[in-house]
Predict the structure.
Amino acid sequence: MNETVNLKTLYASEKPLTLAIMAMGGQGGGVLADWIVGLAEEQGWMAQSTSVPGVAQRTGATIYYIEMLPARDGVSPIFSLMPTPGDVDVVLAAELMEAGRSVLRGLVTPDKTTLIASTHRSFAVGEKEKPGDGIGDPTVVVGATDFAAKRTIAFDMDTLATKNGSVISASMFGALAAADVLPFPKEAFEATIRGGGKGVEPSLRAFNAAYERTKAKPRDEVTASAPKRFDVMPETAGHPDLDRLVHRMRAEFPEVAWPLLFAGVKKLTDFQDPAYAGEYLDRVGKLHALDRANGGEEHDYAFTVQSAKYVAVAMAYDDVIRVADLKTRGSRFDRVAKEVGVKQDQILYMTEYMHPRMEEVVGTMPKKLGLWVESRPKVFAWLDRRINKGRRVQTGTLFWFLTLYTLAALRRIRRGTLRHAREAEHREAWLGAATSLLSRNYDLAVEVINNRRLVKGYSDTHARGLSKFDRVMSALTTLADRDDGAAWMKRLRQAALLDESGIALDGALKTVSSFKHKDTL
């Protein structure tokens, strides 16, 4: 109680207590602001909140700004509408990069600000749009807060809220209460939540969990994302087909390749069937034999390992059948229902945006029929005008669910489709280019295998990736006999992954083309 009195004395001045909330759409930033204002007013303070909507780059990032002062007889304070850099007492960031944004804006200062931030990530459009890994490094943000804030409270408040059936605003309110930066007791915070009347019990659970978490350990260590590596072979849970394939895998391949081979077998069994996964082991087995014959053991079978990964990726391509299959799975409906917090008495409808091109439709046809349609431009164009348009589809309705379910059932005839034939043809050409290099440039052969990373996605995304793949592979004749050929092939691939427009790749290809000119001279 003495601490509360001291805090009241501290804030009984002409200067208001200021808080800024950095939140994105759907995170309850407005609810959190209302709770803080309601809490202050219930305790006899005067408070005001304003909000400044941001751009849609981060699903509508918004700054909520709050100022509060103890009430004084006959005096009505005039509060500011916007936070002033260098003059904010508390910043609450509902996501790690929002914390970084608050630092860049100057709202967090080492002499004044307590920063309360969730360490989870909601990726920005700029991160998602990169063809490669565009995820920002979280350690940079954490390092910035080390010296930018007077005090930092940071842990995964989103996961904690989800575990307690609530949203992040409740857990952030709990962290705020535990931080002792507001001159109000914990009971007053809880009373404010009860006064809301909606979702009280889950909100109180999340609030108290965050309160205790903050008191016990106010900060998590955050590290940069790194590729996951399997050090132990997973079990097959007694699945007969997987057991058989895993036994074969252990008998025919080096241990260093087992984790990726196991992942490939599981992926392709799910994509098609166990027989298709067996075809995958057949193909990788032939590549491993070539690897072994060309000194692969000296390279720890790098060619086999990377082939195990990217042959599986190539064989599990995204087509209309796959998309329809994934969208009609019960596990997907359950996951979305959990994410949006559907109650037992509520019905969930999902609206999908689909824009199929005629190319995808033709690819789903039997090979001969698809070629027949493609060879008749007028027929193709007539069909394209009726198919190539955006549609908003409710997968929870009987008509659209059955439509997609029927498309998913076409997996039984997938091996006979035009798309499958073309994928197999492209795959063999790619693997042929790689194996032709094994005897003279092992490292470059591995990089050619890695180039399959460029081909991904569906529809226009797949077409753009395939175009970049072809452009990178066009440099193969120039690099084949160079000692630094593998290094340059890797640079070309990295350039292709930097931007969607291919500007970086253009420059890299010009550099490689100059090698041929110099060799001629």
About this structure: Residues 363 and 419 are 4 Å apart (CA to CA). The chain is about 55% helix and 10% strand. The beta strands are 17-23, 45-53, 62-70, 90-93, 114-118, 151-155, 351-354, 391-394.
